[in-house]
Amino acid sequence: MLPKNVETFIGCDAEYQDAAVVLYGAPFDSTTSFRPGARFGPAAMRHESFGLETYSPYQDADLTDFRIFDSGDLELCFGSAQQALSDIQARAQTILSDGKFPLLLGGEHLVTLGAVRAAAARYPGLHILHFDAHADLRDDYLGAKLSHACVLRRCHELVGDGHIHQFCIRSGDREEFQFAEVHTRMHRFGFDGLAQTVDMLRGMDAPVYLTIDLDCLDPSCFPGTGTPEAGGVSFPQLLEAIRMVAQDHVVGADLNELAPMLDASGTSTATACKVLRELLLAICLKKDM
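^ thats the sequence. predicted structure below, dont judge the formating
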């Protein structure tokens, strides 16, 4: 018999019932405010992952050492952000209720809201660690409450003051920064303060959701995104931050905003794949999966 033609992220081919970590894709970019294309990010990461090794010399670990299941992409309604978010939330709830770790691949950053809704319902007192170039704290964008420009504002409505910790932020309107001064813990431009934040959350044994907008990276190494912002962090800095955060009680995560066709060289997709490999390994090593 011929094998099934199923494309997964490299090394992520465990059976669902055996897996400790579950990937799920949300190919949605209907509220993108500048350049669209993030809906193609999850599929591109899977396809291009086979240019990588499963082994990481950064962490001396291999994806094949762990039980990771790639459930593929959800079929989402592009005409309704609310319906798309409901479907994402339902998938995250299924994974969490089965005792597994959900790792979402976007898509634009709004998809995070569906995953956070599920995590916040299961883990009271949830904290969010947010890596991004943009504050994403607008109350609305052109009248829309559900936009990738508003996703952390909607998350704040779920988790409350002092539970959102933002890093690498270097873009937003004045009102967003004013809102952050009162309601979130924002660290501008880089990862200064991350070690102290991780130590604090670990001391509290607080449940943590990690959301990574890949435009936290400088566009010199990651141009393939819808809203690139100069002045970002480097690839090694992001990997160090991921490994640091993995020491906390992380209960869910996502990686989003790769728009592969905006970088014809393929460098951005290759970078996203490597970030995903390192994120998966950091989570698995911490959880001894």
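Residues 20 and 289 are 6 Å apart (CA to CA).
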